[in-house]
Amino acid sequence: MKKGLQLLLLTLILPLVLTTGSALAATPETNSGNADQVESIAAIKKRGKLVIGTAADYPPYEFSVKEHGVNKRVGIDIDLGKQIAKDLGVKAEFKVMNFDSLLVALETHKVDMVIAAMSPTPERAKSVDFSKVYYGDSQYIVINKSDKAKYKHLSDFKGHVIGAQNGSEQYDIAKQQVKGAKLKGLDRVNNLIIALQSHKVDGVVMDSTRAKAFVANNAKLTTLDPHFKISGQQGTAVAVAKNSPELVAAVNKTITKLQKHNTFDKEYVPRAGKYMSQGAKQNTMWNYWNYFAKGVGYTIIIAVCSALFGIILGLLLALMRRSANLVLHGLAVAYIEFIRGTPMMVQIMFVYFGIGAIIQSMPAVIAGIIAISINSGAYVAEIIRSGIQAVSAGQVEASRSLGMSKRLTMRYVVLPQAVRNIWPALGNEFITLLKDSSLASVIGVTELMYQTQLVQSATYKGVLPLGVAMLIYFILTFTLTRLLNFGERKLNRPRQA
Q: ABC transmembrane type-1 domain spans which residues (predicted)?
């Protein structure tokens, strides 16, 4: 029994050791020299694909549309990425995640480059290299049309709330130049527009191309050009890992060719505008049912797998915590307290970018399942422990007096009664897992919340897609509740002699 517990202990702590080691290993790899980066171009060509990080929620640069019943990513940045890959003789693979996670993904080598309407600011240039600017842009403020007479200059926003996307150049500009205003940052521009229309913010700072796209598709919005003072290069550029002169040169060669033939204004921008108009015409929720269906599928997969692994891990931790072995007991307590004391979103990102620095081929969905399972295991352990403690000590003593070993007593006497006692609490944990799967969207897992955000981008509707997502989550949780209640009735049904 003792050897078995020690083996299980090693199984539990191995992921933590790997995660810690990956954090240490990522530093020298990220700061590698030119020789390593020369080899990276050869590696890109050898594997036959260029992995590009993007946000896919920023028309006309990168967004998703439905064409002939098929979901596809389109926009200026998508076209540019495909052309860069073509010039390198490989295929383009786009990895979508939140904008403020893109540079982390680049530094941990989850992607080869980032093309996401990113401005080459001096602060970002300290950690990554940038190509030349491929498309110039100024900065606007989007406001409600009903407030057009109220806001004409930057000084008019004093004492009001201004919004900008987290991690963006617009956020820094607003922080520095909109004096006296309260700055509110959100991960997605769509959420900022929802906040604007619900008067949670009074204006949203974004680039002029994006701002004009929103105004063209929403009659209740308008733009304001406050003539921001921009230092350095103004426009968008491609980001690559630090000390990558060969890759930067290859990207610049493609950009120069496209700019020479005016491809951006002649082809890429009009094509993006065409897709945006198409999305505006097909912006009913029914046209995007397959987005929601795909999200539901991934949500269920994440919830089921995380629940299964969480129960296994939780049972092991509960037994370890009840063990007379002080080492096993201490490790279980430390694990449970640490996991319960840190946010799940942080754990998801740490697993993906931490372990992912070593296992670079790890899919985002696997990282999400691992992180959510690790988190769930800590809570399930306490639920199981409380159930075991609720079983009368007299029953344990009676079982031992009949000659049953500790293992048999736990298996046939204690655990069956504990499961009956903790079933409602486990049910709550399963329902929580189903909803918490939405946190995996931060690393690009295409679950329900992630797909909802894509629908928001494609339709320029903020609240309605959220309403559909809420209804779907309710249907899922209500169905699960009915199943759990059925299981509870089966457990509590008295056995016939």
A: 296-481
Q: Which helix (H) or strand (E) holds 308?
A: helix 289-321
Amino acid letter at 312?
Answer: I
Please, which residues have CB within 8 angstroms of residue 326's CB and are 6 or more apart in sequence? none
Evaluate whether 477 touches 231 at the Cβ level (below 8 Å).
no
Quick check: pTM over 0.70? no
The C-alpha torsion from 334 through 339 and 341 to 342, rounded to 10°, is 140
Closest CA to 81 of 133, 37, 116, 39: 116
DSSP for 196-242 reads: HHTTSSSEEEEEHHHHHHHHHT-TTEEEE-------S--SBEEEEES
Q: Do you find a cis peptide bond into 59, omega within 30 degrees of 0?
A: no
CA distance 436 to 439: 6
75: left (phi over 0), alpha (psi -120 to 50) or beta: left
Q: How far is CA 302 from CA 257, 373, 395, 430, in A?
A: 44, 9, 38, 11
- Separation of CA 390 from chain center: 39
Closest CA to 451 of 44, 24, 18, 71: 71
Each residue of 159-175: pLDDT tens digit?
A: 999 999 888 888 989 99
Collapsed DSSP state (helix, strand, coil) of residue 96: strand
Q: Could you give all domains of the chain from N- to C-terminal order, each with its CATH number?
A: 32-136+235-282 (3.40.190.10), 139-224 (3.40.190.10), 287-492 (1.10.3720.10)
CB-side neighbour CA atoms (13 Å) of 226: 27
Burial of 132 (0-12, 13-18, 19+ CB in 10 A): middle
pLDDT at residue 304, rounded to an integer: 93
Q: Which residues pair with 221 in a beta bridge?
A: 144
Residue with tokens 């370890």: 320
Chain length of the chain: 497
How many other C-beta atoms can be found within 10 angstroms of the C-beta atom of residue 205?
28
Query: Comparing C-alpha atoms, which of 123, 126, 116 is closest to residue 53?
Result: 116
